[in-house]
Design the sequence.
């Protein structure tokens, strides 16, 4: 029987630690819970918000409606020759899945170590870090349509993954709830060390022939050094996406700012390091009231204690305006604003 709570604080359920309330709150522990809630009268009368670990949201006001927190557990695997198909419930903590795979020698997601949040949210923005994106290992996911409670399987091509993007952020935004995700991993450890900082760290440690456990450790160390821990300082990781701009536009930026940090992107476009742009505007590590940017990573906005979502949001507006004025580049928020 589904337990629906009333007037629930969402502070423990968002890593920004913003203090807002929801009218109704229900935790979903199985596919059947999900079907039950989708068929219930409550859902037809209320706005719905699907929440995993709350590590990519900024609440700017109380949520008027029903929050469903997805906590569907379970990890299983099927070995097929060199390939392993690993399936995890949407509520599994992403890093627990990474640990399970590393311990079992299943290669493919070790570069995504220590990303907060749940398995179910991982396809939404096609999580990525240190040279790997979710799309590189995604096989399929099971989701339920909110309007009809019908089950649908999404394969790779259905999801239309892009940089921090998928069909779930576009045409199908707010239409489906993901219940489980399957990944195609490998039993032979073809480690990916293309991201500069990984190779540097391996060299420092004298590791010439890294295992997936080595990669996981090194990535975790780099992340801990660079990013604030949400259990002590509220944040949602990168607040903005790295802007991807046309080559012509890039040439203009580079002419005025020869040191601009950039990378090649698909279709001949160029990706700029938003952290660099923000730092150049003098924002790195600054404190603005109860919000600010992180001292080691200007792309991360933080809650220094009891900040409201509106304060954080309005600070993000200031950053967007200043970066646009200096570089002619419009930053886009990566975090979901609610
Ligand atoms: P939530 O914040 O709960 O939800 C995010 C969005 O997905 C919302 O729109 C929500 O409605 C939707 N959603 C959640 N679960 C489901 C579901 N089951 N079905 C349908 N919709 C759902 N991200 C990266 O890509 N790379 C990084 O390196 C990275 N580093 C981070 C570091 C820190 C310190 C923090 C705090 C965040 C970081 N993030 C990073 C962002 C975040 O971890 C990811 O976006 C993560 O996938 C969010 O998972 P979640 O469960 O917390 O999602
Ligand atoms: N930089 C600065 N100043 C800063 C921050 C960065 O100059 O304050 C420059 C540096 O030159 C640095 C470069 O930007 O070398 C890139 O920085 P970093 O390696 O930290 O990566 P990022 O581009 O800032 C992206 C993702 C992260 C992911 C890392 C590692 C986005 C929006 N962010 O950050 O994802 O962990 O790469 O792959 O793509 C997230 O999405 O929440 C997130 C943390």
Sequence:
């Amino acid at each position: 029987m589904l337990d629906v709570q009333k007037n629930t604080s969402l502070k423990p359920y968002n890593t920004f630690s913003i203090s807002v309330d929801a009218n109704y709150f229900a935790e979903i522990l199985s596919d059947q819970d999900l079907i039950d809630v989708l068929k219930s009268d409550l859902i037809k009368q209320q706005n719905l918000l699907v929440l995993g670990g709350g590590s990519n949201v900024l609440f700017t006001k109380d949520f008027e409606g029903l929050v469903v927190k997805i906590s569907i557990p379970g990890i299983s695997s099927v070995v097929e020759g060199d390939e392993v198909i690993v399936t995890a419930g949407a509520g599994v903590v992403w890093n627990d899945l990474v640990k399970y795979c590393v311990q079992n020698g299943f290669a493919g997601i070790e570069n995504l170590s220590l990303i907060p949040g749940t398995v179910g949210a991982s396809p939404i923005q096609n999580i990525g870090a240190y040279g790997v994106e979710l799309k590189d290992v995604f096989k399929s996911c099971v989701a339920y349509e909110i309007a009809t409670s019908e089950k649908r399987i999404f394969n790779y091509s259905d999801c239309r993954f892009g940089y921090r993007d998928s069909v779930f952020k576009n045409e199908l935004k707010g239409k489906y709830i993901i219940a489980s995700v399957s990944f195609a991993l490998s039993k032979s450890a073809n480690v990916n060390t293309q991201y500069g900082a990984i190779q540097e760290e391996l060299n420092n440690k004298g590791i010439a022939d890294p295992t997936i456990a080595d990669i996981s450790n090194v990535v975790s160390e780099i992340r801990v050094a660079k990013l604030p821990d949400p259990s002590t300082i509220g944040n949602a990781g990168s607040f903005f996406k790295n802007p991807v701009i046309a080559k012509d536009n890039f040439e203009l930026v580079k002419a005025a700012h020869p040191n601009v940090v950039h990378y090649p992107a698909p279709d001949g476009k160029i990706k700029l390091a938003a952290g660099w742009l923000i730092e150049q505007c003098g924002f790195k590590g600054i404190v603005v009231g109860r919000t600010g940017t992180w001292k080691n990573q200007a792309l991360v906005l933080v809650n220094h204690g009891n900040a409201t979502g509106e304060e954080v949001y309005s600070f993000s507006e200031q950053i967007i305006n200043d970066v646009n004025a200096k570089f002619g580049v419009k930053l886009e928020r990566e975090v979901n604003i609610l």
